Fold this protein.
Amino acid sequence: MGAYAAAIALAPGLPTKALLCVPLILIPIVWRLLRTPTAWLALFLGCALLTPPLPIALGDSGPHAAIAVAGAGLFIGLLRLGEWRFQPDALALSLIALWSIFACSIAMAAFYSGIAIAAGSLARVLLFGISIYVFLYVRDGPGRLTMRASLKGIRWLFWGGALSALYACVDFYFQFSPPAGYEQQFVWLESGVYRRAQGFFYEASTLGNLCAFFLEMAAVALLLRRPVSRLALFLGAAPLAAALVLSFSRASLVNLAVALLALGWLRRDRIRWRRMVAGVAVFGMGAGITLWGAFPVFARAAWLRVSAAFEYFSESPNAVLSGRIDAWRTLGGYLIANPWRAMLGVGYKTLPYSDFIGTKAVGDNTYLTLLAETGIAGLLAVVAVNVAILTCTYRAARSSDSVRSFTGAWMFCFWAGQSVQMLSADLLTYWRVLPVYFFVLALAARNRA
């Protein structure tokens, strides 16, 4: 060690010294990851929530450090193969079946769209597989957590989500230059053109979906045993609510509304309605006043965007839905004209990159897109996954185990909203936030003796 320190001291130039210091940093990190079965998982989720893509021209947004951590997690899972206890229930089998259908569709992608597009589809299949691996690792593998560790993990996730939302608000205010590729989503105002709040993510809808997820956690925590204090809930919920509004994601607002309705139905026998309405009103007014005071122009634009959706939906639904109806008509027309394509599909995630159907298309509808890309089997599989998640989490919400009850109610409400939001977005491509959701799902789905 002394000789190595002397070598660093004698090395010429700061870059060389820094390069020689890298092993000193990596060795203890690798040792920690190998020694503790959940260390890689914490690092992966932290990277996914709180770091941007690398500024390298590869794919739509550039590679992400979380992918390397996920690779390390797969290696660690193989090293600890003896600790796995796989439960072949409906939830696990439906998830594996969905991933398998995606993987099999790569052959159709290569046949119809070529090897280059098929390679991109394969990459997206592998990214979706990360979420399933996280679920199985935590529920059935070495990542099984005690009640205390589960509550600690939930707290860290909540604060990670709140920090990610806070950065998104700051980024929106200052309009920082993105380090890598990003979706071209803007707000046109009299004072200029502004990029919608995206934070560390590729697009605003991913941020909005994540904010809805943690806001729904806060709502559930107000009714059940709270993993974080009431003050912490309000402190964390403030940037989450602000980022949700500044993302201008109306579909995520619908997700949140559906989840709150599901929560009201799920806990209808325990809710003190007057107290809940008063609390929601106070929090809503406080958040609204804060948002209006900090971002008056943008808050007004967000309000007009939502109110216009209700006012003009009957007159111009396609404009209100940002051209989605035209995209749905394109895909629907193609499937009607070529019904045999619906048997096997044209390959997972090929529609936005291939003009095989006559034009490139972004379906913005999980169900319709999967029908076109992976055939009837893919559509039935995603419906089966939704049913399995809702069934499993509903049962967990009724459990006497406090962690299962809390995470079950949280995921039941959220996935009810997800199932609806899938009508307007391809949520299965949100690979950086989906592992967070499946981590919580694993806590709810795990059988505790």
